[in-house]
Structure formats: C-alpha cells, structure tokens
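Course assignment 3, question 2. Fill in each field.
Student: A.L.
Task: Predict the tertiary structure for the chain below.
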Amino acid sequence: MRRFMRYLILAALGILFIAPVFLLVSGSFMSRWELGEYLGPLESGEGFLRWAWFPMYPTFSHYARLLFETPQFFTVFWNSMKIAVCSVGGQLLLAVPAAWAFAVYRFPFRRLLFTLYVALMLLPFQVTMLSSYLVLNQLNLVNTHWAVILPTACSTYPVFLIYRGFSSIPGALLQAARIDGAGEWRIFWKIGLPLASNGILSAVVLGFLEYWSLIEQPLAFLEEQSLWPLSLYLPEISLSQAGYSFAASVITLIPPAFVFLIGQDYLEKGIAASGLKE
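Answer field:
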C-alpha cells in the first residue's frame, strides 16, 4: 500500500507538471472560433475561462500561418539559436581551461580565486546590469547580439560545474602521463576531457536551456526588434492571435526539449559530481 501511494502521488505530480504543456499543444490545434469561445472572458472581463483537453475540430492553420506566412518568426528563432549556441560555445572556450587550471595546477591564491568565482554565481543580473551596459557601450556592442553573447560566455557557473569533474581525476594518473613524456596539452586533451565529459556536457545542456529563454539581457541590451530572441517575441503576440501564439510556443519548446532528452544522463551525472566534496 505504501508503494502504491508513492506511485500515485508521483503520477499525480507528473500529470500536474505536464498538464500545461498538453493544454498548450491542444490549443495550437484549435480553430480561432473555438479559442474565442474559451478565451472570450479575458477580453470581456465577464465570466470564467473554460478549456478543453482536445480540440473539437483540429486544424493546422496556425502552424501553416506560422511556418509559411510569418518570416519574422524565423528571424527571431535563429536569433535565439545564435545567442544560445554562441554563448555555450564561448563558455566551453573559457570555462573548460579555467576549470582545468583550478583543478590540476597549484598556484598562489588558487582557492581564493576559485571562491571569488563561486561568489560571482550569487550575483543576479540586476546587480551587474549597469556596469555591463557601460562596458558594452564603450565597446560599441550595445544593440548587437554580442552584447548578450559575451557576458553569458564569461559566466562562472560552468567553471564550478566542470571543476568537479577535473578534480576527481587521480593525480597519480596525471603524474604517470607526465613521466611517460606526455605534454600538458596532450594530458588535457587525452585524459582530462574524456574523464570530465559528464560535467562538460551537463554544463552545455544547462547553458543551452538557460540562454534559449533569456529575457532580461536581451531586453536591456537589444533595442531593435529584428534582433530580439523568441523570449521577447512571444509576449508581443496579442490575445486575438492566441492560436498563433500557441503554435509558436510549441515550436519554441522543441529545441530545449530535444537538447534535454539527449543530455539528460550527462546532466544527472554532472550535477551529482559537482555536489561531491574534495
């Protein structure tokens, strides 16, 4: 009975969490007339909202309009893809060598510097927004995608996440490689990266999921709507275009869901490794 109750509670929670996504998908196949019937109280301010789990007369008109008649959607879609991919790529170029240096090499004030790295994770964007804007403005990068990509590429969280994977490599293994004549770059490439791949890939997955849905940074640094990502484009859709908004939201969910499903195992292993103490 105890096991049955546990499964029942977990199933209820699973349905509760997946219900909004299911309703979003069902709404994307509803006709404008049906959506008007359900969402009418939002405009009139009278009565209560109603919703159906399945559309009465399914239609693909919203997807057809979105994919074949709305070129600006593809513009903001590729803006989001560019920001997310370039931000994650920049993190790999900066965070992986930094985490390797902190985990493998012994140099003065190493722990102090790493503590500062961890402390920087606690600073919200609102604290660093003004200073970041002033620096980016001096570099003439405001109102460009680089204004969003460069600060996110320098994030400190991937360093913390990848550091634990490198620090778990036995020092004797690295020393044996040096004795065999391997250089530092070869050790890093042949030993460090394969053994710490879980932490690196988990940082990639988390980074993509975060930067795909950025709101504050693009809102602060991007002025032209042609540069906006999807996270800023979707709220601009009015209630009269609810079906279009549902279809756009469903397509927006596909890339992060795909990345999460591919990297789920690496994400779990990387987070578990980052919680281990030295």
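Instructor remarks: The radius of gyration is 24 Å. The mean pLDDT is 82.
Grade: pending
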